[in-house]
Batch of 2 targets.
Target 1
Amino acid sequence: MPLPVITARGLTKRYGSFTAVDGIDFDIAPGESFGFLGPNGAGKSTTMRMIAATSTRSDGELSVLGLDTNRHGPEIRAQLGIVPQGDLLDEELRVIDNLYVYGRYFGLPRAYVKARAEELLDFAQLREKRTARVDGLSGGMKRRLTIARGLINNPKVMLLDEPTTGLDPQARHVLWDRLFRLKEEGVTLVVTTHFMDEAEQLCDRLVVIDKGRIVAEGSPQGLIREYSTREVLEVRFGSARNEAAAGRLEGIGQRQELLPDRVLIYADNGEHALQEVVERGLEPVTSLVRRSSLEDVFLRLTGRSLVE
Ligand SMILES: Nc1ncnc2c1ncn2[C@@H]1O[C@H](COP(=O)(O)OP(=O)(O)OP(=O)(O)O)[C@@H](O)[C@H]1O
């Protein structure tokens, strides 16, 4: 196994008496696409800020590219690409100038920045918007520009905090496609998200994080195999009848979850489970069989949903 690019042991962040990140361990390998999946407030952004060396840890160890984050902040940041949760672009400047300004901020040579900015315009599919002001761009375009800006120093490791939050489905797919390209080029991606589909799309490996602690680790498919069944049957009986109906489903499938608006039945064969439901004389208003997802893994591990 090649040396990890990021290693954390007992990584902890306290704000006063509140512990936001509670002694987590992880290793991220070069070229890997690694995710932190968890709900709002789980401690994902705090972890990212410590990796980016913009926040000091309270305890434990953290090294990025072989350097201690508490002692080598500037050297680490010079080698990382950082895409924060908000875009933080210069809204009144033109697209191309946002790239120039950021490159100069890094102290990169002018000629290098000029050439790199042109490459990145193409990468971000913003060639036609080259001289447009940022405040007129769509959300998806701004996000792509933020990613392009983060790539100005040609980093080997890219940190992306909630990369597609707030974007519509089409813009998310365009963005994922750009991130796949970076991955193909060998860039290590470190992604936080509370979207299970994003984690399934982007991550080779991820940790599920809740209340500052890692509750599971693995590949998306591996986690689903370990913590869920192949399929899930979702049945709705109407809000007044869900609970009563759920009480009569015992023994169907391996496990059941009662949610406010539906009952989830975990079974390897969802259609068989549905037959059993019907054979018991229960008539769902709607029924749906789907594959298990990371949302099911999270529900199983924490008893809660990823997106509240
Ligand atoms: N500067 C701070 N001072 C005090 N508490 C903080 C500070 N920053 C974060 N927290 C708290 O730490 C916890 C973890 O926050 P964090 O932003 O890391 O979560 P998150 O998983 O990234 O969620 P989100 O997606 O909402 O950012 C939250 O309860 C938050 O209120």
Note: Residues 169-184 form the longest helix (16 residues).
Target 2
Amino acid sequence: MILLLGGSGYVGSAYQALFQRKGIAYRNLRRAEVDYTHPATLTEFLRRERPEFLINAAGYTGKPNVDACELHKTECLFGNAVFPGLVAQACAAAGIPWGHVSSGCIYTGERPDGSGFTETDAPNFTFRQNNCSFYSGTKALGEDVLAGAPDVFIWRLRIPFDHVENPRNYLTKLMRYPRLLEATNSISQLHEFVAATFACWEQRIPFGTYNVTNPGRVTTHEVVALIRESGVCEKDFQFFASEDEFMHVAAKTPRSNCVMDSAKLAAAGITLTEVHTAIAAALRSWQRA
Ligand SMILES: NC(=O)C1=CN([C@@H]2O[C@H](COP(=O)(O)OP(=O)(O)OC[C@H]3O[C@@H](n4cnc5c(N)ncnc54)[C@H](OP(=O)(O)O)[C@@H]3O)[C@@H](O)[C@H]2O)C=CC1
Ligand SMILES: Cc1cn([C@H]2C[C@H](O)[C@@H](COP(=O)(O)OP(=O)(O)O[C@H]3O[C@@H](C)C(=O)[C@@H](O)[C@H]3O)O2)c(=O)[nH]c1=O
């Protein structure tokens, strides 16, 4: 049995859909049922139920976006930085291997030579640099807390999108925001992300940190062009003149926009679709809410 934490959330729901499609036995544990954020409760549960693998898709994101984390710092720090450490302790005590959903939003920009950040590059959008949102700072701390933990995958998801209209879906966001920020990003097709991360366990690739983004990079203008070509939304998309204007008008805290390199995962034999192709495919099978 696979134990899923946070399975009722946006990312967790995609894991549930994957397991149901593949006929994999899993259990979605909810805090309301068993308070898995309480260390002794989680350890006891793991020792009793003995899942073969645990996926931590629980965390604090802020809704509708990370701006909300600036107002809920205690929950954000606990959910993203303290809680992963508690899961690590419980899994180590019970001898359960596991995977943690982290975020690529602990980077900004690209490498000095223009290439994407690899897993060996230190995050540069963190409390250490004092340039980040509270959310990104806590996600980077969560990775710090897990440094050296045994038998854990750290999977970096970035700005998820798929074919289903949803306020959390990047494509929906771009269609609904009154004005857009021009940026270059590596992003993750949500269903490819959950399939690729579970494949890490199924194929028993080495534990460690993996960037799980669709290969390549895409600009906001390119995504908008794909949306318009698809016919899903033909509105006249408006852009901010600069990041300063975006920060002044639409955001409370800086956003991570960054390019990531997913070659480590590919070298382990797990591949995702090239990013423009994946966006076009999502738009081709677009499902309205
Ligand atoms: N959505 C995104 O854009 C991205 C998300 N991520 C990461 O993926 C993980 C899941 O995100 P997402 O699915 O969007 O989040 P959601 O808010 O949709 O779901 C998170 C789930 O986590 C559980 N949970 C446990 N502790 C907390 C807490 N302190 N605060 C809030 N929820 C908690 C809840 O489940 P219950 O109460 O039922 O147990 C909740 O349903 C997070 O770690 C996030 O940082 C990474 C990159 C991008
Ligand atoms: C608010 C806003 C954002 N944007 C841009 C900024 C950025 O490039 C992109 C996403 O910004 P948002 O504010 O929607 O999303 P944000 O909350 O920053 O999204 C993040 O959520 C957390 C949970 C993560 O871990 C990230 O990977 C990412 O998905 O949209 C606009 O173009 N216009 C807007 O009005």
Note: The mean pLDDT is 98.
